[in-house]
Automatic annotation (TrEMBL):
<protein>
    <recommendedName>
        <fullName>2-oxoadipate dioxygenase/decarboxylase</fullName>
        <ecNumber>1.13.11.93</ecNumber>
    </recommendedName>
</protein>
<keyword id="KW-0408">Iron</keyword>
<dbReference type="Pfam" id="PF07063">
    <property type="entry name" value="HGLS"/>
</dbReference>
<comment type="similarity">
    <text>Belongs to the 2-oxoadipate dioxygenase/decarboxylase family.</text>
</comment>
<keyword id="KW-0560">Oxidoreductase</keyword>
<dbReference type="InterPro" id="IPR047869">
    <property type="entry name" value="YdcJ_bac-like"/>
</dbReference>
<keyword id="KW-0223">Dioxygenase</keyword>
<dbReference type="InterPro" id="IPR009770">
    <property type="entry name" value="HGLS"/>
</dbReference>
Length: 462
């Protein structure tokens, strides 16, 4: 029998192999990431594995796909449910970028700590929003919805196998192999000719809309390895002649603990595609929609920590508008002035999530331990281990999308946008979209309760 985590690991590896064949620059990205990680490990030793073992970091991937309808999103959820992956977080990219990006998103990923350690594969999944009148008028919306309703992204056999794997949490080896073949094939780039006129109609609204609704299939949009030094990765990729986007998205690189998520990518490449013209003939053309992304993950921030992060972004925006120049230098200055410089300070101020463990070399002088977790750590009774941020940032995701678009697209801001939220998305998917903060808090609270039990403390730790 093949368990869910084994299915997940095999799917991630096969998807990576397939994407590397389709987009050779992705293989270069993976190779450079591995080189950087090996160099960081040699230079920093055990400290390099503070946010995950080198084995996990090297194997880690997140993918990105795009679908058009709630029904397609439900089917995607069934495929990823087979792999032990759940929808976590709601991201509204329509509001996160100046360019026209008419999608809302969630991320499918494991949520249990053991499952994340086995294989933390995630898929950032975006759904088109034809009902938003800022992007689509009534006529275009009707044409788009008719087109989307007439396609099939996932064959019934794949969905049946997915449901079995999710219900039974495993598949017999032969069925597992068939599931993997069908699942990987569902995300391959289709050779079917693209309707040139229809694609260009949607592209005038948004290149993202055209990539989703202008073709009769879906495909992996990008795959993302994890790197321990993203600034060095950016430098080495540029040295190899790979054109990178202008910036690294997310927190600035500076002294202090790494937090949340930093991302960058090489620019979307022009890929040869067959195009069908209005007269029915098929010509050779090129579409520029897929790219190679890379990420560096840091510590998960609490709600207060995330509010601080958003405030600092706004402050950087404000100062950059008044003093045009090197935004990255400005961001580093702001960050170093307003964010904690150590993990201990991040934890003590309630800005980051940690798990806590009783220290093997804790005091043995007969004194009773304090009931404050901060004092327990300061006095050597317990140790704090950072919780890795497993999720995404809407502004950063939109920034990556935007950096790889050929144009701004069209958005009529005089119209009121359609309303979507996590509750709506849960109903559309047919399963709860989980709150990432609740998941991190549960993990932290479980560790605190364990410390209290081991130290025989009465009541909860403060």
């Amino acid at each position: 029998m093949t368990s869910q985590w084994q299915l997940r690991a095999a799917f991630a590896q096969r998807l990576s192999d397939m994407y590397g064949h389709e987009v050779p620059a992705y293989t270069t990205l993976v190779d450079v990431s591995r080189e950087v990680n090996e160099d960081v490990l040699r230079a920093r030793g055990a400290d390099a594995e503070r946010l995950g073992s080198i084995g996990r970091v090297t194997a880690e991937r997140h993918g990105a796909i795009r679908v058009g309808t709630p029904q397609e999103l439900q089917q995607v959820a069934r495929v990823f449910g087979a792999l032990g992956m759940h929808p976590v977080g709601f991201y509204d990219l329509r509001e996160a970028a100046a360019s026209a990006i008419p999608v809302i998103s969630t991320a499918f990923r494991p949520v249990d700590g053991t499952e994340l350690a086995r294989n933390p594969f995630r898929v950032f999944t975006s759904m088109l929003t034809p009902a938003d009148p800022r992007f689509f008028d009534d006529e275009l919306r009707a044409r788009l919805e008719t087109f989307l309703a007439g396609r099939e992204l996932f064959p019934p056999e794949l969905l049946e196998l997915a449901d079995r794997a999710e219900a039974e949490r495993e598949l017999p080896e032969e069925d597992a192999e068939r599931f993997l073949q069908l699942a990987v094939h569902a995300f391959e780039l289709s050779p079917e000719p693209v309707d040139k006129a229809w694609y260009e109609t949607l592209e005038r609204v948004s290149a993202v809309a055209a990539d989703i609704g202008g073709v009769r299939s879906t495909h992996i949009n990008h795959l993302t390895p994890r790197v321990l030094d993203i600034d060095e990765l950016y430098r080495r990729m540029t040295e190899r002649g790979i054109e990178m986007i202008d910036t690294i998205q997310g927190p600035p690189g500076c002294q202090g603990p790494d937090v949340l998520l930093r991302q960058t990518s090489f620019r979307a490449l022009a890929e040869a595609r067959a195009l069908r013209t209005p007269d029915g003939s098929v010509i050779s053309g090129a579409l520029r929609v897929r790219f190679g992304e890379v990420e560096a993950r840091g510590i998960a921030l609490t709600r207060d920590g995330r509010a601080r992060y958003d405030q600092l972004l706004a402050l950087v925006d404000e100062q950059a508008a008044r003093h045009p120049g090197d935004r990255s230098d400005l961001a580093r200055t702001v960050w170093e002035q307003h964010m904690p410089h150590t993990e201990q300070e991040l934890a003590a101020r309630g800005l980051g999530y940690f798990t806590y463990h009783v220290a093997p070399d804790r005091p043995r002088d007969g004194n009773h331990p304090p009931t404050s977790i901060t004092e327990l750590v300061e006095q050597g009774w317990a140790r704090a281990e950072p919780i890795v941020y497993e999720d995404f940032l809407p502004r950063s995701a939109a920034g990556i999308f935007q950096s790889n678009l050929s144009g701004e697209g069209f958005r009529n801001n005089d119209r009121e946008g359609a309303s979507y939220d996590a509750g709506w998305l849960s109903g559309a998917i047919g399963r709860d979209v989980l709150d990432p903060y609740a998941l991190y808090e549960q993990q932290q609270n479980h560790s605190l309760a364990q410390v209290a039990r081991e130290l025989e403390l009465d009541g909860a730790l403060s």
